[in-house]
Amino acid sequence: MQYIPDNPLIVQSDHSLLLETTGPHFEAARDALARFAELVKSPEYMHTYRLSDLSLWNGAASGMAVEAVVEALAKWSKYPIPPNVPVYVRDTMGRYGRLRLLPGDAEDALTLEADTAVRMKEVRSSRGIQALLGKRIDGRRYRIDASKRGDLKQALVKVGHPVQDLAGYEDGAALEVTLRVPSLDGKTWGLREYQEHAVGAFLGGDSRGRQRGDLAEGGSGVVVLPCGAGKTIVGLSVLVRLGMRTLVLCTNTTALRQWRDEILQRSSLTPEEVGEYSGKQKTIGSVTLTTYQMLTHRKRQGGPFTHFGLFDAEAWGLIIYDEVHLLPAPVFRTVAGIQARRRLGLTATLVREDGREGDVFALIGPKRFDMPWRELEKHGWIAQARCVEVRVPLGRAQRMEYAGADDRERYRMSSTNPAKLDVLDSLLEKHDGQRVLVLGMYLDQLREIADRTGAPLITGETRQSDRDRLFAAYRDGSVAMLVISRVGNFSVDLPDARVAIQVSGSWGSRQEEAQRLGRVLRPKAGDDNSAYFYTLVTGESVEQAFAEKRQRFLTEQGYRYAIELWEDSSG
């Protein structure tokens, strides 16, 4: 039996992949697996991945060939690959493209085409599909009502038949716009190589941005890049390349304003051409920025959504979904009905805690581009982050109360462990003179930290004008530390943040871990490009169990994290 001792991968017949972390080829094998496999768990010496339908479809949609997956598994496997695994890979990836959505014989019609009549018969018999099919054209083709395009794609993914959407898009109203090099501040800039590849992949190339043959299938999909790697610039470059009116959906007003600043700084668009549709003002321009909160607003519970008409307010040629992994469920329903518009999702992680990754694949589009975070770090495009978990014991009195509490109360008690304040004091002393963010979930805990340190506190209750003022003060150095609740998780551009200290978090959320780490990943000025990401965790508690789930995200991105034990001096 073939045995290659230096190879780090063990491929198992249940489609799980075991990856040893101590060998010389660990990083190369990890980066290969990231393109077509999902990380399941990540103990220190052996990581477990899984081949799944969705992970393999994303690999196929990004331009990865079936045999390239099989070859990668064979290249890094310590033992011979079980014979059923290549069969599963070929069958699953081969399903992507067997069904195709094509233009129809009228503006309001599309054609669903299968590679064989037998396949179409199988699909037609699948649960929930029959009602979405129109008139039969022949054994391999059905007419589809164009308004059901998204619903059909969503339903087909759920029954294991992903459809390759080649039906094309309606061109939105033309927009004359160019990138501004240098920008208004006089600094010369240009797209980095990986950003060029991301733009090209979205517009119809493979994962290296190279144009494919046959029918171009660009125009919808997701670009995955870490915070600080320039997702906004990728979105702006797509906007410029397409030259069409664009709607940009953001996570909050702070992110909206940052998008606006980037657009005005780096493009030829004028302030009059960039509209803001928010609680403060409702102007619609050639490029319009709004938030998910605005789109999901309704005057009464169960009533209609007040602002969904924005999707039809203009002849949008492109809709950009910033932080697409946070897309609210009501917006999914609208996305299903606007499949004729080009759609770009931007995110640091495709993980959704509600398990709706399949809906992102079907309705926004497949993953078009991804790049290992550590590869970006190696080139200095993001900061070199050191991740540390500090385990803090509960005091004697708290341990007795903890033992008698229910699970939810145990999580609150371990998250707000008073001993974390002593650890915080020690870390602040260690990083004296550096820009610090303290991030947490429980407002009472954060208020106590703000009172203890004198640092400003930003929560959901903080007025937008005060948030903007404090973020500006942090950027110019007049404020060196901020205490921020979950409102700071998303799309806050604080390039000089070097230290993040996470004192409490949301029930093991990998989404949140990605966003909070991202707060310190923007490259630093000068020769020192280092950053620090601390998580304070109560040891031997329910919080520690949830922290292990959060750490899966760090491992997915190639980070090793140190675990340090804090000695309780109180006894």
Describe this structure in words.
It is a single chain. The N and C termini lie far apart (57 Å). The protein is 35% helix and 19% strand. The model has no long low-confidence stretch (mean pLDDT 88). Helix 2 (53-61) crosses helix 4 (84-95), helix 7 packs across helix 8 and helix 19 crosses helix 20 (542-556). It has four domains: 9-95, no CATH class; 99-165; 193-371, P-loop containing nucleotide triphosphate hydrolases (Rossmann fold, 3-Layer(aba) Sandwich); 377-565, P-loop containing nucleotide triphosphate hydrolases (Rossmann fold). A seven-stranded parallel sheet has the order 12-13-11-14-15-10-16, sandwiched between helices. Strands 19-20-18-21-22-17-23 form a seven-stranded parallel sheet, sandwiched between helices. With 571 residues, it is of the alpha/beta class.
